[in-house]
Specification:
By secondary structure, the protein is an all-alpha fold. About 60% of the residues lie in helices and about 0% in strands. The protein is globular and about 45 Å long. It starts with a helix and ends in a 10-residue tail after the last helix.
Length: about 160
Protein backbone atom coordinates (compact mmCIF):
# COMPACT_ATOMS: atom_id res chain seq x y z
CA UNK A 1 0.00 0.00 0.00
CA UNK A 2 1.18 3.46 -0.86
CA UNK A 3 -0.25 6.95 -0.77
CA UNK A 4 -2.65 7.70 -3.65
CA UNK A 5 -3.39 11.22 -4.85
CA UNK A 6 -6.23 9.80 -6.94
CA UNK A 7 -7.73 8.12 -3.89
CA UNK A 8 -7.33 11.28 -1.84
CA UNK A 9 -9.10 13.27 -4.57
CA UNK A 10 -12.00 10.77 -4.59
CA UNK A 11 -12.36 10.80 -0.81
CA UNK A 12 -12.13 14.60 -0.66
CA UNK A 13 -14.67 15.04 -3.47
CA UNK A 14 -17.14 12.96 -1.48
CA UNK A 15 -16.36 14.18 2.03
CA UNK A 16 -15.68 17.91 1.56
CA UNK A 17 -19.22 18.81 0.40
CA UNK A 18 -20.47 17.53 3.75
CA UNK A 19 -18.91 20.65 5.30
CA UNK A 20 -21.84 22.50 3.75
CA UNK A 21 -23.97 21.11 6.58
CA UNK A 22 -21.88 23.09 9.05
CA UNK A 23 -21.58 26.22 6.91
CA UNK A 24 -25.17 26.15 5.63
CA UNK A 25 -27.21 23.95 8.00
CA UNK A 26 -30.71 22.86 7.09
CA UNK A 27 -33.43 25.40 7.91
CA UNK A 28 -34.96 22.82 10.23
CA UNK A 29 -31.67 22.47 12.15
CA UNK A 30 -29.09 19.74 12.37
CA UNK A 31 -30.98 17.78 15.04
CA UNK A 32 -33.33 16.65 12.27
CA UNK A 33 -30.39 14.60 10.91
CA UNK A 34 -29.78 12.65 14.11
CA UNK A 35 -29.51 8.97 13.33
CA UNK A 36 -31.03 6.60 15.83
CA UNK A 37 -30.41 3.55 13.70
CA UNK A 38 -28.55 0.50 14.94
CA UNK A 39 -26.36 0.51 11.82
CA UNK A 40 -24.74 3.86 12.71
CA UNK A 41 -21.63 2.00 13.93
CA UNK A 42 -21.26 0.31 10.54
CA UNK A 43 -21.77 3.65 8.85
CA UNK A 44 -18.96 5.30 10.85
CA UNK A 45 -16.60 2.35 10.37
CA UNK A 46 -17.31 2.40 6.65
CA UNK A 47 -16.65 6.13 6.43
CA UNK A 48 -13.29 5.83 8.19
CA UNK A 49 -12.44 2.71 6.20
CA UNK A 50 -13.28 4.32 2.86
CA UNK A 51 -11.22 7.38 3.67
CA UNK A 52 -8.20 5.34 4.76
CA UNK A 53 -8.42 2.76 1.99
CA UNK A 54 -8.89 5.46 -0.66
CA UNK A 55 -5.83 7.38 0.41
CA UNK A 56 -3.74 4.21 0.58
CA UNK A 57 -4.95 2.35 -2.49
CA UNK A 58 -1.63 2.63 -4.31
CA UNK A 59 -1.52 2.50 -8.08
CA UNK A 60 -4.54 2.32 -10.36
CA UNK A 61 -4.78 -1.29 -11.49
CA UNK A 62 -8.32 -1.61 -12.78
CA UNK A 63 -10.00 -0.46 -15.95
CA UNK A 64 -10.02 3.32 -16.36
CA UNK A 65 -13.76 3.15 -17.11
CA UNK A 66 -14.28 2.80 -13.35
CA UNK A 67 -12.46 6.08 -12.80
CA UNK A 68 -14.76 7.77 -15.28
CA UNK A 69 -17.80 6.23 -13.59
CA UNK A 70 -16.57 7.44 -10.18
CA UNK A 71 -16.13 10.93 -11.61
CA UNK A 72 -19.67 10.98 -13.00
CA UNK A 73 -21.08 9.80 -9.68
CA UNK A 74 -19.17 12.50 -7.80
CA UNK A 75 -20.40 15.16 -10.23
CA UNK A 76 -23.99 13.99 -9.69
CA UNK A 77 -23.41 14.02 -5.91
CA UNK A 78 -22.09 17.59 -5.99
CA UNK A 79 -25.07 18.58 -8.16
CA UNK A 80 -27.38 17.29 -5.41
CA UNK A 81 -25.52 19.40 -2.85
CA UNK A 82 -26.09 22.41 -5.12
CA UNK A 83 -29.77 21.49 -5.30
CA UNK A 84 -29.86 21.47 -1.49
CA UNK A 85 -28.43 25.01 -1.40
CA UNK A 86 -30.53 26.41 -4.26
CA UNK A 87 -33.86 24.98 -3.07
CA UNK A 88 -33.65 26.55 0.38
CA UNK A 89 -31.55 24.13 2.46
CA UNK A 90 -34.37 21.86 3.58
CA UNK A 91 -33.32 18.69 5.35
CA UNK A 92 -35.68 16.56 3.25
CA UNK A 93 -33.81 17.56 0.08
CA UNK A 94 -30.80 15.67 1.46
CA UNK A 95 -32.76 12.41 1.32
CA UNK A 96 -35.64 12.59 -1.15
CA UNK A 97 -35.46 10.50 -4.33
CA UNK A 98 -34.05 12.00 -7.51
CA UNK A 99 -33.97 10.45 -10.98
CA UNK A 100 -35.94 7.52 -9.52
CA UNK A 101 -33.10 6.78 -7.12
CA UNK A 102 -34.05 6.47 -3.44
CA UNK A 103 -31.79 8.42 -1.02
CA UNK A 104 -29.41 9.43 -3.83
CA UNK A 105 -27.11 11.41 -1.53
CA UNK A 106 -26.39 8.13 0.24
CA UNK A 107 -26.31 5.89 -2.83
CA UNK A 108 -24.03 8.06 -5.00
CA UNK A 109 -21.04 8.24 -2.61
CA UNK A 110 -21.25 4.51 -1.90
CA UNK A 111 -21.35 3.82 -5.64
CA UNK A 112 -18.41 6.19 -6.22
CA UNK A 113 -16.32 4.38 -3.61
CA UNK A 114 -17.31 1.06 -5.19
CA UNK A 115 -16.07 2.34 -8.56
CA UNK A 116 -12.89 3.49 -6.82
CA UNK A 117 -12.42 -0.03 -5.44
CA UNK A 118 -12.86 -1.53 -8.92
CA UNK A 119 -10.55 1.07 -10.45
CA UNK A 120 -7.82 0.62 -7.86
CA UNK A 121 -8.20 -3.11 -7.45
CA UNK A 122 -8.09 -2.48 -3.69
CA UNK A 123 -9.77 -5.25 -1.69
CA UNK A 124 -9.57 -2.96 1.37
CA UNK A 125 -11.60 -0.25 -0.31
CA UNK A 126 -14.07 -2.87 -1.52
CA UNK A 127 -14.60 -4.18 2.01
CA UNK A 128 -14.83 -0.66 3.45
CA UNK A 129 -17.41 0.22 0.78
CA UNK A 130 -19.55 -2.80 1.70
CA UNK A 131 -19.39 -1.80 5.38
CA UNK A 132 -20.29 1.79 4.46
CA UNK A 133 -23.23 0.59 2.38
CA UNK A 134 -24.45 -1.67 5.21
CA UNK A 135 -24.62 1.32 7.54
CA UNK A 136 -25.16 4.44 5.44
CA UNK A 137 -27.93 3.20 3.16
CA UNK A 138 -30.30 1.88 5.86
CA UNK A 139 -29.67 4.90 8.10
CA UNK A 140 -30.39 7.30 5.27
CA UNK A 141 -33.50 5.38 4.23
CA UNK A 142 -34.73 5.36 7.83
CA UNK A 143 -34.16 9.11 8.13
CA UNK A 144 -35.91 9.77 4.82
CA UNK A 145 -38.97 7.72 5.85
CA UNK A 146 -39.15 9.59 9.15
CA UNK A 147 -38.74 13.04 7.57
CA UNK A 148 -41.27 12.26 4.85
CA UNK A 149 -43.76 11.37 7.58
CA UNK A 150 -44.10 7.81 6.38
CA UNK A 151 -43.48 6.31 9.81
CA UNK A 152 -43.24 7.53 13.40
CA UNK A 153 -39.68 7.64 14.85
CA UNK A 154 -40.21 4.51 16.94
CA UNK A 155 -41.06 2.49 13.82
CA UNK A 156 -38.47 4.03 11.47
CA UNK A 157 -36.14 1.07 11.99
Amino acid sequence: MTFSWTGLALAAAILVPNALLVLFPPREGLTALTSAGPSVVLERLGQVGCLGASVLWGEDRGAAVWGGAALLLVVAYVALWLRYLVTGRHVLSLFEPVWGLPVPMAVLPVAAFACGALWSGSPWLAVATVVLAAGHLPNSWRTYRFLAGQVPPSQAV
